[in-house]
């Protein structure tokens, strides 16, 4: 099993009403160097300017990004290449990130290489410390800057720390 942390930037709250802008993925392994970044053009004419602004990408730039199909094909190939066993989707905000990645995989490839489920980092931490309201973001070693690879790498680093603290999960 391989843990892959994913972070998504989008121009609204839900696909396909809104579009994914970019995403980053990092394998949970000591170097945190196995990374993928995808940038995809809009699939909808709708967007929320305040949501798009978080990504740091203008609407004009977003419109020039690549069609989603080839990007998702490369992402699926990367997942197959870097995974040892079944890939496991991990995220800071699983409810948000998963819906975009899952939708785009099914819409453009007909299947999701992560299967049907994922793990939320905060829930893993809450279980470890036996507090359903515990916060974990203090464990990040780099700022959350909304570059999806940077954010995924910081969150993958937190996963490594949880493993060091005794969480029984594989790190390549």
From TrEMBL:
Give any single GO term for biological process. DNA metabolic process
Entry-linked SUPFAM superfamilies: Ribonuclease H-like (SSF53098)
| Protein name as annotated | Exonuclease domain-containing protein
Per the database record, which ranges form the Exonuclease domain? Answer: 2-168
Question: Which InterPro entries does this entry report, sorted A to Z?
Answer: Ribonucl_H (IPR013520), RNaseH-like_sf (IPR012337), RNaseH_sf (IPR036397)
Q: Which GO terms describe its molecular function?
A: exonuclease activity; nucleic acid binding
